Every structure is written in structure tokens, then in C-alpha cells.
UniProtKB/TrEMBL annotation:
Residues 1-253 form the EAL domain. InterPro entries: CBS_dom, CBS_dom_sf, Cyclic-di-GMP_PDE-like, EAL_dom, EAL_sf, GGDEF_dom, Nucleotide_cyclase, Rev_trsase/Diguanyl_cyclase. Residues 274-333 form the CBS domain. Residues 431-568 form the GGDEF domain. This is Diguanylate cyclase (GGDEF)-like protein. It comes from Actinokineospora auranticolor. Signal peptide: none annotated. Pfam families: EAL, GGDEF. Keywords: CBS domain. One of its GO terms (molecular function) is cyclic-guanylate-specific phosphodiesterase activity.
């Protein structure tokens, strides 16, 4: 039982352990890999000497582990400044502390009250060791903390003693993949397979998956491709001694985020597409003023309280507000008092943000408020309106349906617009790239000889090989432009690996041998001006490739008639004119 200590230090000077009052806190954001936006901030204890693990080990040896950990958690809340817009605060506690849920919640309450936070604003990250904790006591403790309003995350998955069965029993809100596994990406097949399995698990269960210790651009690209939507590490943003967020992102990271968004789908609606006028009142308004506003217009579902410049300060939600002030004694107790006392921290988003960014904000910030309106602000954070989440969700769903309709029904690959966008992006970024055209030789003869079904099987097989290549090669994008034609845009250092997968393979369908032709165009910086020009220059290369016996690969460059035949009957790296 935890007794007789203040939340900022352990009372009682026991010689067995000295709780480090010289503990400061650093803060590191957790970012969306889809948008690059911060979705939470984690408090990290930093003792003046040693590290927090040593501090906790000393406390454990002295029998004061839980007391010390509760003190650190409370002080983390007090130390965290509230960023603008407000973000959830992640606080680390060891598994043993979670079994003392009543004591933890009791000592967190004054810290939350002092900083203006609610339990729903805090995510408790449960850290190892788990093996020394009674399983039933841990689950009961986590249930009690959830009942208080806290959200639960498991940390160090993949390098600690967290049982996978505990994930199924608890169903945490978030799971963090340990930095040891992330360090193996993208080259270690075992690490890749583990993270891929975890991503699939989280997709099926609705648990959010975050990667810790992201240090390289290759890791970030790999995480994007695996569907890991949250990440944390020095590549994205380092630690800060305040609760602020050290953004903007470094340029290479921002480009990766942009690439992920650009090549992902068809156009996503903007928040401004769903803008509605906001009902606003001064932050000085009384509860009676707000009640009258709701009573005068039944269609008003929320009121935004703004400061003198029009920036949102708080939001009043109709049902919650009226429940608080319209009871038997509610009006008498609250009518003359400020309405802001009954408000929630405003969730605000820029009008030029995409709807996916809005859904990330809502999904990561507060699951219990997903039915509310969100305040829309301009570049100066002045309120310009609100959007209803139900309408945004419907709009994104419709965009996804349109995207699915654009996929080829045989291969599930996008059409040429995916390569078109990627080529334009590379041209704009002044990058060198390779665009390639893959074609099945004499495909009509396949259909005429072994049937249309066999031809469809062949196209599906080629589509799977190309999808695998896109997954394994970070700089590669593929498209199915119809029939037996496929387009690829890739990095210069990836074209050989891609060609090997396509041309050095023995293609068959219904025991019929088939050959393919790959025409590729190396586009140096400034050598082509558009996707249209690149496709025009590819056309004669395709004809040259098809003229080479067997499966072939030819390579050309803008501004020259010389073509290298790299695969096929005449392929000895010979140059032909």
C-alpha cells in the first residue's frame, strides 16, 4: 500500500533508497507516419546521474519500486507543458505500479487538476518487467485505470517479457514495437516478418501500433509500407526539455511523408470541403448565456468559446452542457458562472488539412469524442467554422471506394495515374529516376492457345511479382495500365533488381512458356519535363525490346538513339544504334 508521501517526492528518509529529487523530464513527440503530424508527446524521466532504469532498480531493491514510480508519474504530469493544440501525454509506469491502480490514480489527481488535464488526456505506457507481476492483479489494475478514464499502452514489445497472450486479454489502446526490432528494418528478414505480423494483428484488432527508435529514412519508408502509422525517434523529432514539439520535420523525412501520401490513393477531400459556420461566443460568456443559445436553436450542437482575437478557447457540447446546467439545481448553481467551466479543450485543425489528417487527430487524441464537431482554424488559429466527423468519415469512405474502383480487377494494382503522379513528383524534386514498360510477348497467342482463364492467371502472377517488388524496393511504384501492359517508376539503383525479378524468371501458364519484354528509360535531372514526354520516349524502346528474341530488357536515355540490350538473345551489354 502506498502511504504518506507527497506526489513530488517520497516521504520518509529511508537509508535504503534515496528518491532522486534531481530528476528532470524530456519530452518526445509521437508522429503519424501518414501525415507527419504529432499525435501525442511522451514524458521521459532523466535523472541527473545514471538513468531511470538504475533509479527504479535501486528503489526495487529497497522495496519502494511502486512508491518511486508513482512519484515519477505524478511529476511527469506536472512537468509537461500543454502544447497548442493540446496533445495526449504518455507517461511510463512499470507493470507492478499498474497493480496499485487506486494509489496511482489518487496521486495523479492533484497533478492533473494543477495542469488542467483529465485522465482521458493521459496514456499510461506499461513497461516491463511483467513476469514478476501476478497476471490477474495486473489485468484488474488496468481495468480500474481505464474506468478512471486513462488509456493503456504496452511498451517494449519485442525486447521485453510482455506475453503476447496479455495483448489478447487486455486489448490495449496502443502497442509500441521496441527499438531493437525497428533497428533491423528493412534488411533483416526476421525483424521485417515480426513487424509485419504485428501490423496485421493491430489492423485486425483496432489496436494502434507505434514504432520506437526510428533513426533512418529506410526504416521510415519500411514502416510506411508495412502500415505502421505511428513512429517515434530522433529521425522524426528529438527530445525537448519542455513539453513543446520540435517541428518542422527534417526535409528528407517530410519528403518521405509526402511520398507516402502522394502515392497512396486518389484525391482525399480537404477539411474545408466540409466546413460549416461555427456558433461562437466570448470566453467570458456565462452558463446562462450559453444555455439560451442552445435553447434558441435546437440545431446548434456545439458552441465555440473564443478569445478577443477569435481563437478557440473551449467548446461546449450540447448534450453534456445541458446535462450539467439543466438539472434540478444545475441552473441555480451554474447560471451566473463562466460557461467555460463546462467546456472541453478545443480540437482544432487547419482548413487546408486533409480529411485523413483530421481522422488522425481524432483517432489519436480522444476516442470518446469521435462523434463531436471539430473546430477549423486559419493560419492565425482564428476560428473559421466547424466540421462534423460523420460527414468527414463518409467523404473519406467515398474517396476510398473511388480508389478501389480505379484498381485493376485482375491485379489490384492502380492505373497509370499512380506512376504519373510519382514521375511528376520526382521531376519537381529534381531527382534521377527510371521509368519502365513491361509487356508480355505475343499475349494474344496465349489466349488463343490455352484460353482466356490461363491468360488471366498469367497477368495475376505478374501483378503479384510486381506488388512484391514494390513492397521490397522502397523507390519503386508499379501500375497496371491494361491488358498485358505494366508501368514502373523506380530509383536507378533498383532497376537491376527489378529487372532480374521480371526478365530472369521462366514465365509459364498451363505449361506454356511465355517471354516478356522490359523497356526502361533512365531519366536524368532535367532530361524529361513530364510523364507524357517520358511515355512518348518509352514507346520506341518497347518496340526494340520486343524485337529481341526471348525475355528481354533494353535501356535507353533521353537525347540519344543508343540503346543497351541487357537481357535477351543479343544481351552482352552490347550497344546498338
Amino acid at each position: 500500500m502506498v502511504t504518506n508521501y507527497h506526489h513530488s517526492a517520497i516521504a520518509g528518509q529511508d537509508d535504503r533508497v534515496t528518491v532522486a529529487t534531481d530528476v528532470s523530464f524530456a519530452f518526445q513527440p509521437l508522429l503519424s507516419t501518414r501525415t507527419g503530424e504529432p499525435v501525442a508527446v511522451e514524458a521521459l524521466a532523466r535523472p541527473r546521474s545514471g538513468d531511470v532504469y538504475g533509479l527504479l532498480r535501486s528503489a526495487g531493491r529497497a522495496g519502494r519500486l511502486v512508491e518511486t514510480d508513482i512519484s515519477l508519474a505524478s511529476r511527469a504530469v506536472l512537468a509537461a507543458a500543454r502544447p497548442d493544440p493540446p496533445l495526449p501525454l504518455h507517461v511510463n509506469i512499470v507493470a507492478a505500479t499498474a497493480t496499485a491502480a487506486e494509489d496511482l490514480a489518487r496521486f495523479l489527481r492533484p497533478a492533473l487538476a494543477q495542469t488542467g488535464r483529465k485522465p482521458a488526456d493521459v496514456v499510461l505506457e506499461i513497461t516491463p518487467p511483467f513476469s514478476r507481476v501476478h497476471r490477474a492483479e495486473l489485468i484488474n489494475g488496468l481495468d480500474a485505470l481505464r474506468a478512471e478514464g486513462y488509456r493503456i499502452a504496452f511498451d517494449s514489445l519485442g525486447d521485453g517479457d510482455l506475453p503476447l497472450s496479455l495483448l489478447a486479454d487486455v486489448g490495449p489502446d496502443l502497442v509500441k514495437v521496441d527499438a531493437h526490432l525497428v533497428a533491423g528494418l528493412p534488411d533483416d528478414p526476421a525483424s521485417l516478418a515480426v513487424v509485419e505480423c504485428l501490423a496485421q494483428y493491430c489492423t485486425r484488432t483496432g489496436v494502434r501500433l507505434a514504432a520506437v527508435g526510428v533513426e533512418s529514412e529506410d526504416q521510415l519508408l519500411c514502416l510506411n509500407r508495412l502500415g505502421v502509422r505511428l513512429a517515434q525517434g530522433n529521425l522524426l523529432a528529438g527530445e525537448s526539455r519542455s513539453g513543446g514539439i520540435s517541428l518542422p520535420l527534417p526535409r528528407p523525412v517530410a519528403e518521405i511523408i509526402e511520398l507516402n501520401a502522394t502515392t497512396g490513393a486518389s484525391t482525399v477531400p480537404l477539411v474545408s470541403d466540409y466546413l460549416r459556420p461555427a456558433t461562437t461566443m466570448s470566453e467570458e460568456a456565462t452558463a446562462e448565456d450559453a444555455r439560451a443559445t442552445f435553447a434558441d436553436d435546437p440545431k446548434v450542437t456545439s458552441v465555440v468559446l473564443v478569445d478577443a482575437e477569435g481563437r478557440p478557447v473551449s467548446t461546449l457540447l450540447r448534450s453534456r452542457f445541458l446535462l450539467a446546467v439543466a438539472g434540478l439545481y444545475g441552473h441555480a448553481l451554474n447560471a451566473k458562472k463562466p460557461a467555460v467551466r463546462h467546456g472541453d479543450n478545443p480540437r482544432a485543425i487547419r482548413a487546408d488539412a486533409t480529411c485523413l489528417q483530421l481522422l488522425d487527430l481524432v483517432g489519436e487524441a480522444d476516442h470518446d469524442r469521435q462523434g463531436d464537431e471539430v473546430v477549423v482554424v486559419d493560419a492565425d488559429r482564428v476560428c473559421v467554422g466547424v466540421v462534423r466527423l460523420s460527414e468527414v468519415v463518409r467523404g473519406v469512405a467515398e474517396a476510398k471506394i473511388e480508389q478501389a474502383a480505379a484498381l485493376n480487377p485482375l491485379t489490384r494494382l492502380p492505373g497509370s495515374e499512380a506512376v504519373d503522379r510519382d514521375i511528376d513528383r520526382r521531376i519537381h524534386a529534381a531527382e534521377m529516376f527510371v521509368v519502365a514498360w513491361l509487356d508480355v510477348d505475343a499475349f494474344k497467342r496465349v489466349n488463343d492457345t490455352v484460353g482466356f482463364a490461363a491468360g488471366d492467371d498469367l497477368i495475376r502472377h505478374i501483378g503479384r511479382v510486381l506488388s512484391d517488388a514494390e513492397r521490397d524496393l522502397p523507390g519503386t511504384r508499379v501500375a497496371h495500365v491494361g491488358g498485358d501492359d505494366f508501368l514502373v517508376v523506380t530509383d536507378l539503383d533498383e532497376i537491376t533488381a527489378l529487372a532480374s525479378r521480371l526478365v530472369d524468371r521462366q514465365w509459364t501458364t498451363e505449361n506454356m512458356a511465355v517471354t516478356v519484354s522490359l523497356a526502361s528509360l533512365v531519366c536524368g535531372v532535367g532530361s524529361v519535363s513530364s510523364y507524357r514526354e517520358a511515355s512518348r520516349l518509352l514507346a520506341p524502346l518497347k518496340q526494340r525490346a520486343k524485337a529481341v528474341p526471348g525475355s528481354s530488357w533494353v535501356l535507353g536515355r533521353p537525347g540519344t538513339d543508343r540503346i543497351e540490350v541487357l537481357r535477351g538473345a543479343r544481351a552482352q551489354h552490347a550497344r546498338v544504334s
